[in-house]
Amino acid sequence: MRTVIVTDSTAYIPQEIRERYSIYMIPLNVIFGREEYREEIDITADEFFEKMRTSDKLPTSSQPSTGQFVELFEQLSKDYDAIISIHLSKKISGTYQGAITAAGMVEGVKVYPYNSGWSCMAQGFFAIDAAKMALEGKEPEEILARLDELKASTKAYFMVNDLTHLQRGGRLSGSQALIGSLLKIKPLLTFVDDEIVPFEKIRTQKKALNRIYDLLAEDVNKGFPLKCSIIHANRKEQALEIKDELEIRFPTVDFSISYFGPVIATHLGEGAIGIAWMLK
């Protein structure tokens, strides 16, 4: 059975890697006023941050239409028997539900929508591992079982400079945003049951980063092989510094750098930093 992997743009997998492993990407959209852009296609992360600085109003985002999913699935049905469609957490976007709806409208191919429960490179790791297995000829059920294993081992923590972006988008309650802003708290955030939730309240970014390092160390000390991504919202130099520091501290871990692209940065704001890791 020939299986292909689809993911959405919020995985932020570089194009050359998508091409190398035959991963197909369906874009979400970022909206400035009446102008709508498909992220990773019509607008880059750099262009987004520049536009956000000069825009009168904060941008919004939207999921792919069911029609876009149907069109992509029908195109892939000509060459593949199965599609595993891996998407960002179902409680922060309707993208996964859109894949489910489209799967029921396409004939000639079996579609397996998969809720990663995460986003950004945590989700990207899922898609890359799945694509490697698909290229090896693994059956869809085996790939899905591997994704469940990855999900159980995945951890990710992130912090934002301005809580109002999350509050405005309905991802954080108004009271939490107000308290955090007044006290200059840098809360560590994570995903629990597909939702963004506060993990711990910490006063400074340095202390928050050190707390993430300690959490990573706990898993490294268990002896399992890990891969880890430092994810940034227009803070590449800081991300490189973090990577250099962590590579010295944890030489057995595979580190990489990724980014919060337009759609996710719409809700996190510029300056957000996250670290995600899972089993190799």
UniProtKB/TrEMBL annotation:
The keyword DNA damage does not apply. One of its GO terms (molecular function) is lipid binding. The keyword Cell inner membrane does not apply. InterPro entries: DegV, DegV_C, DegV_domain_contain. It comes from the Bacteria. This is DegV family protein. Keywords: Lipid-binding.
